[in-house]
Amino acid sequence: MSRSTPIIGVTLDTAGRNPTARQLVDLALTAERGNLDFVSLDDGFDPSGARAEDGAGRVHLDALLALAHVAAATTTIGLIATVTTTHTEPFHVSKNIATLDHVSGGRAGWLVAVSTTAAAADRFGRRAPAPLEDLLAEGHARPV
């Protein structure tokens, strides 16, 4: 089956400096009313960018948990969470995405990401990061 119309989505990462769950829900509802196909939310372990705390007082929410909250308020829009596989056990990734898919009624998606910095590895007490090619191969090879 081929789809003749484009798939259109929007990121929720622009919700502001310290987005609340309500702001994410409101943005997702607006996207849903506009007949967009999906919303996405970035996440990761690296200390810069869209991360747990970037040092400038900006808080970044866990993508899977935040989108589970959004799922309860929406009915049709797809929910795509970025999930980093580098320091996460495959069964955790699998279970968490399956949970989002279940609570959303089959609307979950997964954007695979890898963590490439020594700072992120330090957060987990791990060795220095592997070469990017190895991380990408490992990240995409894990079944969900």
Describe it.
There is one protein chain. The protein is an alpha/beta fold and 144 residues long. It has a single domain (9-141), classed as TIM Barrel (Alpha-Beta Barrel), CATH 3.20.20.30. 38% of the residues lie in helices and 14% in strands. The chain has helices spanning 21-33, 63-73, 90-103, 118-123, 132-141; strands at residues 9-11, 38-41, 78-84, 108-113. Helix 2 links the parallel strand 2 and strand 3 (78-84). The longest helix has 14 residues, at 90-103. It starts with 8 loop residues before the first strand and ends with a helix.
Structural class: alpha/beta
- Percent strand equals 5-15%
Encode the helix/strand succession as letters: EHEHEHEHH
**Averaging pLDDT over every residue, what do you get?**
82
Write out the strand line-up for the largest beta sheet, numbering strands in chain order.
1-2-3-4
Domain module count: 1
Brief overview, please?
This protein is of the alpha/beta class. Helices cover 38% and strands 14% of the residues.
Summarize the SSE layout with pairings.
Elements: E1 9-11, H1 21-33, E2 38-41, H2 63-73, E3 78-84, H3 90-103, E4 108-113, H4 118-123, H5 132-141
Parallel strand pairs: 1-2, 2-3, 3-4
Helix pairs in contact: 1-2, 2-3
Main features:
144 residues; alpha/beta; TIM Barrel; four-stranded parallel β-sheet; 5 helices; 14% strand
